[in-house]
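Incident log entry.

Two folding requests arrived from the same account within the same minute. Monitoring flagged them as a possible duplicate submission, but the sequences differ. Recording both here for audit purposes.

Request one:
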Amino acid sequence: MVVVVLEEMRIRALGVIDDAVVELSPGFTAVTGETGAGKTMVVTSLGLLLGGRADAALVRIGAKAAVVEGRITVDGRSAVAVRAEEAGAELDDGALLISRTVSAEGRSRAHVGGRSVPVGLLGELADDLVAVHGQTDQQGLLRPARQRQALDRYAGAAVAGPLEKYGAAYRRLRAVAAELDELTTRARERAQEADLLRFGLEEIAAAEPLPGEDTELAAEAERLGHAEALASAATAAHAALAGHPEDPEGVDAASLVAGAHRALEGVRSHDPKLAALADRIAEVGILMSDVAGELAGYADDLDADPRRLAVVEERRAALSHLTRKYGQGIADVLAWAEQGAARLAELDGDDDRIGELTAERDALRAELGELAQALSDARTEAAARFADAVTAELASLAMPHARVTFAISQSEAAEETAGIEVGGRAVLFGPHGADEVELLLAPHPGAPPRPIAKGASGGELSRVMLAVEVVFAGSDPVPTYLFDEVDQGVGGKAAVEVGRRLAKLARTAQVVVVTHLPQVAAFADRHLVVEKTNDGAVTRSGVKAMEGEDRVRELSRMLAGQEDSELARAHAEELLETARATR
């Protein structure tokens, strides 16, 4: 058997508690004390160790921080030990040390096994460590959703398997329905978008723009617009280089360069340096001849036709119309056309997509109907066993004639509401199925079963919740149970039976109970009292273990408000004897 036991807690500067050590029994520990003494701080301390919300108001006035430390005996095979070691924690001689610090400014820090960890890790450990139940849990049990959760938890894999499949199908249905709704409700907008895209694509296709065409046409327009000046300049440059045919006596650059070359050529053999200069002059002559030839060809080929200029300007105007609407340049226009075609194909495929989604939605609804029926069947079977087990526990809690049952039903879907078919009926459904689960209580023979929210008194509700937890302890146990005054509204014989049942639960788990009932405290293996004293300056609370005569005095106080009352002492001793006989 894997053993996990919360051995003790050290509480410092938390609320009314200045410094106290709470040593817990591995079995049943009862925590008692006067109203306002600080019993709630014990529960709060454990809550902080379990990753509960930190509140700067919890820090004792004048203190810099509140600190809660816990020592947990763990088996290396336990889930608590494994998860802690995964986070880098180390065990101390088979024990796991946990601490939580809350500063007066509200900052919170957590340590597990000597390693600083996120506070969230404490919450993860708590899931496998402690089940906490208080008066708020009683109120929670009144809600149908919590009752369904309790039933599902008890049913275990029989419900968990179908519920997991149902949840996946339900989430997919939600996604499909959302996409389908968007497609259908935005049909007009999407049709308008498609029309605009088609118009733009047709306009671009009609113009047939080519990549870089706008740049080329701009250069051609510039050339055609200055054709005469360009031709005149080319002709003049050609004449300067090669001479004018109508002026044979004119001096030109080519003739001058040729004369320079001839002058050097005759003496080049006498000096290599001069020969090199002659070669360079020859190269200049060749280059000038080439340039002169190109100038002549340029002037001859230059197109000065004004009709071509008109054609170019007209084409540029057509391209400019496109760039004003679809991009800064033709490259941007072509990119818009490519993206627009892809988007249009997507929009044109909406009708097909709507058909696909509609078919998937219908298939998912049919699948959900089958899974919801499987869930309902599993819950109905588990409900009978759960109700019988809780009823049996109530018999041990001074409610021998009480009967607990579950009502499992489904609400029919209205015509305008999309439902799923379960058992031949269209019913409403949600993320957990189509079932509405309600816990019913018949407190005595002849009384009709009524929802516990309406038919159970405070004391009955406390015992129902305790019975439910005891049943859970047998099917899905945790190492430690903390009950915070769940016995409120219970008294007399019923209180004795509550104490007896908690003692029985403590045989297989650690049980910590904060109580005001002596009948419950008498059954504890360890009885702790939270005491508050006033030294005139600082109010302090301490936690003491009650044994022997001290325990009799405390039970007497709880019974009669008088520690020295002979009748109360006799009653206290009788309670202790009854508890010892039970154990």
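Request two (distinct sequence, not a duplicate):
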Amino acid sequence: MSIDNIIQQAVSRALDELYGIQAAPETIVPQATRKEFEGNLTVVVFPWVKTARKAPDAVAKEIGQWLVDNEPAVKDFNAVKGFLNIVIEPTYWCSVLEHVLDEPNYGIKPVTDESPLVMVEYSSPNTNKPLHLGHVRNNLLGYSLARILEACGNKVVKTNIVNDRGIHICKSMLAWQKWGNGETPESSGKKGDHLIGDYYVLFDKHYKQEVADLVAQGMKEDEAKNAAPLMQEAREMLRRWEAKDPEVRALWQMMNDWVYAGFDETYKRMGVSFDKIYYESETYLEGKEKVLEGLEKGIMYRKEDGSVWADLTADGLDHKLLLRSDGTSVYMTQDIGTAKLRFIDYPIDKMIYVVGNEQEYHFKVLSLLLDKLGFKWGKDLVHFSYGMVELPEGKMKSREGTVVDADDLMEEMVSTARQVSAELGKLDGLTPEEIDNITEIVGLGALKYFLLKVDPRKNMTFNPKESIDFNGNTGPFIQYTYARICSVLRRAEEQGLLSEGQGCEAKVEPNDKEIELIQKLADFPSVVEEAGRTFSPSLIANYVYDLVKTYNQFYHDYSILGEEDPCVRALRLGLCQATAKVIKTATSLLGMQVPERM
């Protein structure tokens, strides 16, 4: 049992015996005591003051004294107004450390048959361009969130919806048809998603020239954009696609297959995966069917031009278009269709969409519509809304080919990791294979940590050079500390010290730095739980950074292998083992790897 649980239960008993207050242990939340006060854990007593009919300071003192008299884990206390600061018996921390070491999946709750099923959707790429930096943040947030939710005891299904139809796809197809000369990924040596992305940019270049020519001839810009021959051809190609024209469908399938092969390579290197992939080309008709069903039930209405709408004014929103007058669907309709298929495939208890904050209104509408159409999780769907990611030089634009490509970014990160690691001498004595492996782990770890340590709701600027720093709040700093701990443990094993003194460490009274580190380790399960409750991987990232800082201070101040007292040495080696264990678990929840040598 963790120290937090022990204090929760003890305070609950104290409240019952002292004041007859029935407080469930889980409602009592001990916090780490602020550094300016003496103590390890602090409990706020204000919630019980009114019922106890005493001043906050008096309530804190009475509960504190009860704990000293009745709970062996509590040595002392002090009360500051309504804050009860609790001093834990020093030798008790050894049993906390033992719990961390003995629990095989420390901090991770088991998934059972009764666990709720949570579906997490992330990535959502378009098949007309490769993944870029924005997709990288989306994928890393979605994958990490799925890992965290599973660690909190949920069944998790990771899904992706691929935007594989629409006018944007036809633009790339038309450009390849006109100027591709039969080029393929094999003939060009390019990844399929990169090849198709080049044709998307090429379409835009020619289209802008056509618009400029029409404007020069006296046409207004809006009219020119509609009248441009390339746009007319792209729209005709979309009509033919929707009519299932064999020639257009064959071209579409061939080019999409190229893109999927490219995406798979990117996902693999990024270290993310999916349990189920849905395609808009397969879901949009399902959505149309569901909307027409809603029309029959009076949930939607049809306008004179034949378009179908939902009136959401009673819910504080507006009227929402669901089917155009020509019967074609909009994005909302496609999302309804995807939801329908998912609901058939899985008994979903909660649905989480990892999508940027510019789509907040869309998901408010989707939640209402799904609820009205009878999806039990519709009203409670979660839009995991995250901020945009930019580079120091500003925003990116796909059509102009100015995006930061995900593959190029990962390659740059690994290359920079190799260069910085070599300059610092961290690759000395390693084989070429070990260097390749370590620089891949460090480069991608730096990328993942930098993007995940920021509160997901905030916009952020990604600076590749800052992220590779081996000092400060970075992935490499955490990875290097893990490798340092592994080195200590390897030397301890070589010297036969890992087994020496085992068992007698429980008799040692840890010093303040050791207690601080044990307490930080003890916090891990509650941090995981809070990260799952608030959908925030950044809590895990910043926790593991604080843990590493605390360990490094301990490592700096005290000898480990050179300690002569076998019991103290056993305690410190146990601290090393427990810290390495928690670092590895915490970073895995962020999708990061940690190298054992650096």
